[in-house]
């Protein structure tokens, strides 16, 4: 992995912008599908949903570039800034104004994110960790994702169903992000190496399943339940893999770790607040 943190941050911010456009388009498309109708069929016929997919493709391309330049612990938390970009977009489409309190929340999220990056100073790790390093963390995440999916699909409460499916989707995106850096390096050795790698197929399965569960979450209940779950679960799952598998670390002292932890708490709280504001926008 090349370690160029400034380039990684710039690419991650562009990725967040693309993901924001995609989220606004996909939320509106999925929410318009009645619960009893075929979700996949309806979305495939929606131009707005396809516009969202185009945004996702652009965002993922920028995310790949960011992960090639910096650590998972550096890149993934920046993607929560998609909420800051998505809020005015959603408000503009729905003809609503954004309150001063919401802008203050967005500013707090931005400040917490900057604190996380500057104080925590995440380091790059080992992207080609052997399979046995992956087994236990992946198994733990798979159990959590499976439980959230099963309980979510069986839940009668729309808000709870949206929350659990959103958390499962975001966690799968986090797994995919953690695998992305290594898979992209395989292309340097030829397509054969890409196709025979277990990381490639795990990445594809996590990404495809994550997209489907995200649409189910958008359809199932209020956006104030699904959006924060997706947004928070992704960097948490990616950070878990980064620390336990990829040997990424925060380059700071004990006090810095406390400040970094507080920044994460503020990021989670402001993410939930901004998600609720976006759902109302």
TrEMBL record:
Keywords: Membrane, Signal, Transmembrane, Transmembrane helix. The keyword DNA-binding does not apply. Residues 1-25 form the signal peptide. The chain crosses the membrane at residues 64-90, 102-119, 131-151, 163-183, 195-213, 225-246, 252-272. PANTHER family: CONSERVED INTEGRAL MEMBRANE ALANINE VALINE AND LEUCINE RICH PROTEIN-RELATED (PTHR40761). This is DMT family transporter. It comes from Nocardia suismassiliense. The lineage of its organism: Bacteria, Bacillati, Actinomycetota, Actinomycetes, Mycobacteriales.
């Amino acid at each position: 992995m090349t370690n160029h943190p400034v380039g990684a941050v710039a690419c991650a911010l562009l990725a967040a912008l693309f993901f924001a456009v995609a989220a606004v388009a996909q939320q509106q498309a999925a929410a318009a599908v009645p619960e009893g109708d075929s979700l996949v069929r309806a979305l495939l016929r929606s131009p707005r949903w396809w516009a969202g997919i185009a945004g996702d493709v652009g965002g993922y391309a920028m995310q790949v570039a960011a992960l090639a330049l910096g650590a998972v612990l550096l890149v993934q938390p920046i993607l929560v800034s998609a909420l800051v970009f998505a809020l005015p977009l959603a408000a503009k489409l729905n003809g609503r104004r954004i309150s001063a309190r919401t802008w203050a929340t967005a500013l707090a999220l931005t400040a917490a994110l900057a604190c996380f990056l500057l104080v925590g100073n995440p380091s790059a790790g080992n992207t080609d960790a052997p399979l046995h390093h992956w087994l236990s963390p992946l198994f733990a995440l798979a159990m959590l994702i499976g439980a959230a999916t099963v309980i979510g699909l069986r839940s009668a409460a729309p808000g709870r169903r949206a929350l659990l499916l959103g958390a499962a989707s975001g966690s799968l995106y986090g797994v995919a992000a953690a695998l992305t850096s290594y898979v992209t390096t395989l292309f340097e050795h030829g397509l054969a190496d890409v196709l025979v790698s277990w990381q490639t197929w795990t990445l594809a399965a996590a990404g495809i399943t994550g997209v489907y569960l995200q649409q189910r979450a958008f359809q199932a209940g209020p956006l104030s339940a699904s959006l924060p779950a997706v947004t928070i679960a992704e960097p948490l799952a990616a950070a878990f893999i980064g620390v336990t598998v990829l040997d990424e670390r925060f380059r700071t002292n004990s006090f810095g770790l406390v400040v970094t932890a507080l920044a994460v708490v503020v990021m989670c709280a402001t993410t939930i607040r901004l998600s609720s504001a976006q759902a109302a926008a």
